[in-house]
């Protein structure tokens, strides 16, 4: 069994791990350096060559150990900003925390390209470090001096930041033990707060006293839940107790920052668990209290869950399908209006108009949390219209076309996904007959019907260019042309059809009408075949004539 050594500042304190954990860690440590992009290693090595200490720190080290791909790369050092900047050709330094952005050319295949930022790496916490792309793509690797933070009057930002010469000072100010790990360029890991042990045990706990950490930065309570659902870690009991005690401090945090953490919870693989934790820990009442109205709001009938559990199941299904944010939010909010619209019926409660009430509530919630206007409008639209598809035997194709026009062709399948979440949230089969019928009807409504509109000439062309008078004969000619084109699509040209119109116009009314009716019948026959294909594809029956 080997030991993990720590720096002299900790008097070479060592921690012993179980054999299986030690073996796994040893193997991971060998691979850690290989996984670090060359651009990032260049920064740490440059600092070290200049005589300074330099460590990768925080979430990137945690993710490397766990085997996840880091999204951000943070470096900490005993160098001060004025000592960091001269070491690199281009830097950005516009903040109060000493963070220097080292600007480097982007090497393709480095693993640093972030699709959401078009090749620019920047920290979530400091938007000022975003660098516009101009010609050559570049990245920003952030370097922050060791620092000590004093007093947090606003429960979010330190009143004073002092630079330090000791790594320990920087690590002990961090939020959770799993994020208080440092890795140097040689692969030496520094762990002063048993972060490795907590990674092994899949446990999230604060560095030092939890009450102190949450009073410093109340957003850390949301981050605890976010990390829990992202990493599939449990939250330590003492950390949970502290969140329960300090939950109301979240009111001091800006709504934009709350929204950002909430979105990350929703976009995790386990958002339903995240919402449950928010509620159990006393945070949800300070963020989206409207959701708690659904707790113990019984629905009866087809529903086996109360509104609260139904919404959680719907949300989780959206996550299981890896659907985007707007669908997940719509699934979470689709029945949020039920408690306020509930009326006691003879055998079961009714919720008439809950989709209208819910759409208004969803808009207010998202506006309160400062969501972008486009996202607000889509979620409102999906919640408002999620009840449209109810009885497949009563819905007409024209009604389906109207709802497509209402929500937009680009959103109709998103609406169907929300509807699926609703069905699965009732413990119904994922794609029961009713849903399959909806899909078939939508595809039928979306497809371009076979019509004379597909011809390369139209009635206006026939009048102006060919001298054909408007009336029944023009209709018969168009239908006859359509039959010709349906049998031989290559004949659908202005030249060929113009010649054919001239020939057809020489026929008598009776003969021309016969040809026109035959073309109309051909069109209807092909239409039926196409619709039957759609119904067969989705495994549903055609309506009886």
Question: What distinguishing features does this structure have?
Answer:
545 residues; Beta Polymerase, domain 2; 8% strand; seven-stranded mixed beta sheet; disordered N terminus; two-stranded antiparallel sheet; alpha+beta; elongated; 11 strands; 24 helices
**Dominant shape:** elongated
Strand order of the largest sheet: 3-4-5-2-1-8-9
What is the fold named in CATH at topology level of the largest domain?
A: Beta Polymerase, domain 2
What is the CATH homology-level superfamily of the largest domain? Answer: Beta Polymerase, domain 2
Q: Averaging pLDDT over every residue, what do you get?
A: 82
Helix-and-strand structural type = alpha+beta
Structural domains: how many: 3
Count, helices:
24
Kindly state the percentage of residues in helix. 40-55%
Largest sheet: 7 strands, mixed
What is the rounded distance between the termini?
Answer: 79 Å
Describe this protein's structure.
This protein is an alpha+beta fold and 545 residues long. It folds into three domains: 8-201, Beta Polymerase, domain 2; 317-446, no CATH class; 454-538, no CATH class. Helices cover 49% and strands 8% of the residues. The chain has 24 helices and eleven strands. The strands form three sheets. A seven-stranded mixed β-sheet has the order 3-4-5-2-1-8-9. The chain has a two-stranded antiparallel sheet with strand order 6-7. Strands 10-11 form a two-stranded parallel ribbon. A hairpin with a 5-residue loop joins strand 8 and strand 9 (189-191). The longest helix has 30 residues, at 509-538. Mean pLDDT is 82; it is low at 1-16 and 113-135.
């Amino acid at each position: 069994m080997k030991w993990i050594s720590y720096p002299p500042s900790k008097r070479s304190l060592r921690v012993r791990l179980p054999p299986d954990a030690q073996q796994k860690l040893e193997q991971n440590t060998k691979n850690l350096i290989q996984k670090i992009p060359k651009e990032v290693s260049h920064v740490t090595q440059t600092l070290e060559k200049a005589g300074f200490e330099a460590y990768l720190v925080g979430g990137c080290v945690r993710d490397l150990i766990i085997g996840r791909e880091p999204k951000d790369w943070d470096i900490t050092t005993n160098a001060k900003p004025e000592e960091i900047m001269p070491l690199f050709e281009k830097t950005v330094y516009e903040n109060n925390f000493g963070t220097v952005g080292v600007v480097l050319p982007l090497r393709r295949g480095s693993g640093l390209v972030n699709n959401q930022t078009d090749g620019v790496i920047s920290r979530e916490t400091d938007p000022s470090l975003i660098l516009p792309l101009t010609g050559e793509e570049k990245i920003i690797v952030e370097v922050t001096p060791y620092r000590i933070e004093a007093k947090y009057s606003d429960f979010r930002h330190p009143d004073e930041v002092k630079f330090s010469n000791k790594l320990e000072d920087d690590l002990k100010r961090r939020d959770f033990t799993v994020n208080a790990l440092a890795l140097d360029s040689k692969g030496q890991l520094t762990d002063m707060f048993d972060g490795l042990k907590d990674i092994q045990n899949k446990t999230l706990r604060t560095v030092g006293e939890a009450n102190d950490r949450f009073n410093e930065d109340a957003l850390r309570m949301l981050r605890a839940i976010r990390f829990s659902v992202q990493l599939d870690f449990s939250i330590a009991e003492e950390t949970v107790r502290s969140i329960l005690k300090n939950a109301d401090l979240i009111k001091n945090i800006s709504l934009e920052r709350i929204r950002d953490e909430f979105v990350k919870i929703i976009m995790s693989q386990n958002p339903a668990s995240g919402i449950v934790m928010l509620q159990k820990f006393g945070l949800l009442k300070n963020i989206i209290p409207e959701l708690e109205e659904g707790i113990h709001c019984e629905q009866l009938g087809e529903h086996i869950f109360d509104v609260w559990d139904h919404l959680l199941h719907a949300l989780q299904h959206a996550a299981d399908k890896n659907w985007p944010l707007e669908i997940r939010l719509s699934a979470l909010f689709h029945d949020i209006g039920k408690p306020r619209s509930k009326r006691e019926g003879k055998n079961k409660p009714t919720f008439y108009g809950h989709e209208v009430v819910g759409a208004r509530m969803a808009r207010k919630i998202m506006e309160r949390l400062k969501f972008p206007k486009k996202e607000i409008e889509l979620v409102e639209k999906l919640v408002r219209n999620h009840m449209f598809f109810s009885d497949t035997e009563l819905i007409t194709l024209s009604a389906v076309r109207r709802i497509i026009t209402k929500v937009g062709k680009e959103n109709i399948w998103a609406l169907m996904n929300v509807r699926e979440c609703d069905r699965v949230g009732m413990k119904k089969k994922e794609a029961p007959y009713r849903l399959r019928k909806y899909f078939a009807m939508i595809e039928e409504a979306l497809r371009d019907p076979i019509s004379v509109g597909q011809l390369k000439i139209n009635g206006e062309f026939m009048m102006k260019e060919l001298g054909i008078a408007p009336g029944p004969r023009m209709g018969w000619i168009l239908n006859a042309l359509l039959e010709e084109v349906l049998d031989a699509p290559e004949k659908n040209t202005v030249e060929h059809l113009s010649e054919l119109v001239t020939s057809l116009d020489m026929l008598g009314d009776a003969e021309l009408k016969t040809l026109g009716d035959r073309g109309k019948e051909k069109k209807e026959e092909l239409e039926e075949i196409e619709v039957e294909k759609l119904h067969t594809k989705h495994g549903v029956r055609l309506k009886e004539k």
